[in-house]
Amino acid sequence: MGILVNQVVKRFVSRGREVLALDGVSLSIDSGQFVAFVGPSGCGKSTLLNMIAGILQPSAGEIIHDGQRVSGINRQIGYMTQVDNLLPWRTVEQNIRLPLEIQRRDRGETRERVEMLLDMVNLSGFAKHFPVELSGGMRKRVAIAQLLAYDPGTFLLDEPFGALDAQLKLIMQSELMKIWERTGKTVVFVTHDLAEAVALAQRVVVFSGRPGRIKHIEDVELPASRDMFKIRFEKAFQAQYERLWAELAPEISKGESL
Question: Per-residue pLDDT tens for 24-72?
């Protein structure tokens, strides 16, 4: 069923004046699809993500998720940002278990699911460790496992790897692709990194500068299963990147000139 964004407008009031953040945005995302949003800073990418999550409400238009109009907090999605939000006083397994405790799942079922998720994110040997004892990449893996714990159909990821160094970012991109291929989740991924968007996504949505409008949508003509460590050296990747950069670069230049 996926996500339908229908003529969405979002206005904010800042310092006594109205700011138009998004204007007339329409978009459909199929169930199980991996879609990336790119655009200049302040173009409304994260605002749209927050509206899909139900954290913000549109000023006009509507958002439909899996057949239901989003009118409050959307409990059918998992949301991840640059900040992992792990509880420092809980171990890795306790952090992953938290959503299941909130749902009051059976203890036996919870234990089995946590063990499965630890294995999926390659952290089986770190179940008893606390977040402070983990590397940045390991913390991201815990955060992904925590999202997977309650099995949402859709992942909303807002620059989840933005704070990582280049090498670690590649590793986490590879891990995310493996998890997406294994689970078939719908993924909406916000990034400022066009190369990351092309490497990961099946479709890339380019936003204009404020007020944010969808300027261009392009299917990524690369194999669904990709090697994150090699894909950037392929001619098809470079051609796709150049086409999308031609759409994105003018919007970034406009933003810098404001």
Answer: 999 999 999 999 999 998 889 999 999 999 999 999 999 999 999 999 9
10 Å CB burial of residue 182 (0-12, 13-18, 19+) is: exposed
Residue the block writes with tokens 């899996």:
66
Place of tokens 């891990």: 175
For the chain, how many residues are written?
258
State the Cα–Cα distance between residues 191 and 134, nearest whole angstrom: 24
- Looking at this protein, which amino acid is placed at residue 17? R
Least confident stretch, 99-108, 134-143, 207-216, 221-230: 99-108
Whole-number Å distance between alpha carbons of 66 and 209: 29
- The beta-carbon contacts of 227-230 under 8 Å, at least 24 apart in sequence, are 227/174, 228/170, 228/173, 228/174, 228/177, 228/199, 228/200, 229/170, 229/174
Instruction: Tell me the C-alpha distance between 114 and 100, whole Å.
Output: 9
Contact by Cβ (8 Å): 61, 82 = no
Of 6, 153, 183, nearest to 79 (Cα)? Answer: 153
Q: What is the pTM of this model?
A: 0.89
